[in-house]
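Table 4 source record.
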Amino acid sequence: MDYLTLDAAMARALELAARGPARGPNPQVGCVLLASAEPTDPAAPAVPRPGEAVAPAVPRPGEVAGVPRRVLAQGWHRGAGTPHAEADALTRAAAAGIDVTGATAVVTLEPCSHTGRTGPCAQALAEAGVADVVVSVPDPTETAGGGADLLRSRGVQVTTGIRRAEGEALLRVWLTAVRRGTPYVTLKTASTLDGCVAAADGTSQWITGSVAREHAHVVRSQVDAILVGTGTVLADDPSLTARPAAGRADQPLRVVVGHREVPPDARLRSGAPYLHLRTHDVAEVLAELAAREIRHVLVEGGPGLATAFLRAGAVDEVHAYLAPVLLGTGHRMIGDLGAATLADAPRLTTVAVHQLGEDVLVVARAHREALS
């Protein structure tokens, strides 16, 4: 039987949360239910078990720091319409005949306080007799936030901020989208080393190799929508489906931006949800997608669309796939961004570099002020 400190239990909850789907309107959440603090409990191990590193607990009023507690149950959220992490853990405890009265719920995101397709988790925890709740990240949404206040009104002690940096990192995309009110935007480019996305004659398949293309399909499977312009549709007739080698993937919404008509036999019209937004206004596109609860958009269009999103300051992250190819002339990756001098050029922060076969992927993020 597992025994964990509060800090170690939050680490476990974050691991559980990561099992949930990265895409969809709901966040990834994990929950671990711990027995009430019993420092004198003879069953609790006084020292870590062999090979186990017990991180220092974050002490709260009346608690002995670092004392491991028995794990009663755990759960995580598997996507929209399925039980939330807290409900999943409570259900598992009930199925095992475990009484959670006086227990501590360690949750990666503040329990929700509203009724949607499932009931409010804050109320479920209080009604189950949970004595206190430990939270990593407060819920910033108007509809679901307020769970901590509801719990406190029911006499449940609430502590927030445990491993918050890790919780924020896990929920970076979702938190950005709900705090700002528009989807998180990832711009994907695939270019030669000298910045071309196509040769002078328009040929572009394939600049990158099979390993890089497989990685791009994995990314597609993790976003809610893929965005291209009508020019890309007319020139390349892409299917825009996610086809990762690991197996079948849920397909993202395929979005076409622009005024020109999309041919009725275009490949992206079949096999997955499709939307045509007849506009060139980036803000209008993002507002429409936000209204559809799209949290993460992958922009895969050509240089025109990439330039429009960059000029609008709407790109949060860039995935730049670079192939060891030199064209010397051809179609450039992006157009004019209005930077007359180097000092005016937007600078990103490189967060990862991966070698993918013969190609390299650079992941860079825009500088954003934190939104609380």
